[in-house]
Amino acid sequence: MIDVLVLRGAADTVMLRAAVPDAVIHEADALHAGGAYASVSVLVLRSGIRLGVRELDWLPRLRHVVRTGSGTDNIDLLALEQRGVQLHRNAAASAPSLAEWVLTAALALSRRLLLGHNAVLRGAHTKVACLAAPLGEMRVGIWGTGPVGLATRHALAPHTGRITFARWPSNPAGLPELPAETLVKECQLHVVAVPLRPETRGIIDSEFLEQAARVRPHLVCAGRLETLDVPACLRALADGHLSGLAVDGVEHEHLPLFRSSPDPLNLLITPHIGAQRADVRRRLDQWAADLLQHLFHPPKPTTVAVGGLR
Predict the structure, then answer these.
(1) CB-CB contact of 66 with 16 (8 Å)
(2) 264 near 119, Cβ under 8 Å?
């Protein structure tokens, strides 16, 4: 009998067992048909694991999904709602770490470090081609005003020029924003930090790249890879219409998209490590442990005496 199923890497099971010693906690690599999930009431997962109708059918007693991170594109939210399953997630814990990755990528691309590095690995010396524009003079457009977008603004502000957000109906009031078509034509550095939704899938497409070609911007994707038309971005980079490209959310299945180019590129690709920082992992592990303790042992309501009645 399993009460809590933790998919490997989603949380520290030692901490979870210490928080709820009376619960049976099991760790698995993935969900699969025929698993012993009939008694599972809490599922703990991160990105890379699909949770849809089929998987929910394997978990008939599931009541809580704990997402130790921010993205929910791997989770069928409608199916959860229809089955009365509550989703818990921590969208803010990893934002400073992702913003740090964005700053690292922006510095590396603007100094054309990746072009020089990738050329050297091919036996070429490209010092002249690595002439850089100063990051401090670049105007920045941020696409997305969630925790990562806001943390990115804070991280970049001391090192770049003016920072403006792409106008979106859900943007918080008071942020500097401009219409998307204006940012595309004016910014030298774009940071994509939108959640993956049907309306944001492929938001950076051929049309965007054509409009931006005159500026030859750097493009940094801190969100899901699917927000980019990757082949179009790589062509624009090879053609010189992009000056640099950095992508973090690369999963194993995405690797064929980045087969080696015949020429060195100012390209940074990382295997979804934006949140892979020790302090972030500790914070998320503690959050998950505290949450499970609350779910299994909710605080009892207090009775307050009023006018002699109880």
Answers:
(1) no
(2) yes
* Per-residue confidence band for 307, with pLDDT thresholds at 50, 70 and 90: low
Q: CA 290 to CA 190: how far, in whole Å?
A: 37
DSSP class of residue 51 equals: B
CA–CA dist 44, 6 (Å, integer): 5
- Which residues, 6+ apart, have CB-to-CB distance to 211 below 8 Å? 181, 184, 185
Write the DSSP string, the chain: --SEEEETTSS-HHHHHHH-TTS-EEEESS--TT-S-TT--EEEE-TT--BSHHHHHT-TT--EEEESSS--TTB-HHHHHHTTPEEEE-SSTTHHHHHHHHHHHHHHHHTTHHHHHHHHHTT---TGGG----GGG--EEEE--SHHHHHHHHHHTTTSS-EEEEP-TTPPTT--EE-HHHHHHH-SEEEE-----TTTTT-B-HHHHHHHTTT--EEEEEEEGGGB-HHHHHHHHHHTSSSEEEEEE--GGGGGGGPPPSS--SEEE-BS-TT--HHHHHHHHHHHHHHHHHHHSPPPPP---BTTB-
Give pLDDT tens digits for 54-95.
999 999 999 999 998 877 888 999 999 999 999 999 988 999
In eight-state DSSP terms, residue 50 is: -
Between CA 64 and CA 84 the distance in angstroms is: 9
- Token pair 């890879």 is found at 225
Average pLDDT across the chain, whole number: 93
Distance CA 149, CA 161 (A): 16
pLDDT band for 209, please (50, 70, 90 cuts). Answer: very high
